[in-house]
Amino acid sequence: MIPETLPCPLCKSPIEIAAAKWCDCLSKKLSVVCPRCHLCFCKLQKFAMEPEWTAALRELLERQTVEKFRRALAASESKVAHAQTVLIVDDDEEIRLIAEYTVARMGYRTFTASDAEEALKMAAEVRPDIVLTDALMPKIDGRELCRRLKYLDPKMKVVVMSALYTSTRYRVEAIHDFRADEYLAKPINFKRLREVLEQLTAKAA
Amino acid sequence: MTIGELQERFVRALAQRCTDIADLIDDGNDLERLMRGFHSLAGIAGTYGYDEVTEVSRECELCCASAIEQARALNAADRARLIAGIEAIRRYAVRSN
Fold it and tell me: What is the ipTM of this complex?
């Protein structure tokens, strides 16, 4: 138990323990400044620290550290909980890696799938906000995946990526025929990818 | 993993990708897979800024796409073109490593 007040080691006037704060004068440690003589406890190595003060400050430090950790954890959990989820689908591991790296750094929660079948299972489970899929994949291609994802959840945003040589034809097909929300040409332009994700995120909000 | 490490990983694996694609050209039976091999290479190389690799891969991808659209096997000219392409990429990989 921390007492409410303890006497200042220098002037002996009572100091409220609750007034302890992170000292910004020297050591950035948890400390207390006496309101009367302005002694900052971080300089107390010059003085004999009384045992009750040592115990009180240690307990206070533990409490504040725990509190600080809790706040950081809550902030982080809240951030993750509100982050939009992006499912990246590509049969090429290198592309999955670089796309995941980049999208995660943009602040999205990411999942990856190496083909359309895996993507459909994952989409049913995690219900991503946005699916970023390659166009050309074995078995089920990106356009068909897009159609099935929209059937699964019409609100799910789907971005189809394809190489430039088919861009015009594919863009028309992907967006109009298969109801993809956006089309991205490969190689991936990450600035454009960010814009697209932000636009889709804003639409979903 | 950093972006630099991802890039290094891609360059290190490039020679193996070339070998895998060269095997598919030799085999000649799975044109779709061969096209996807070039397609992936074009996409990822360009993402890392290796435009030369992307350009060659894309030409090879088009060559495969053309054979698929015409529902025919690779002919001698196609094979020569694809082998030249993959050799150019292999040389690029050796230079970059």
Answer: 0.73
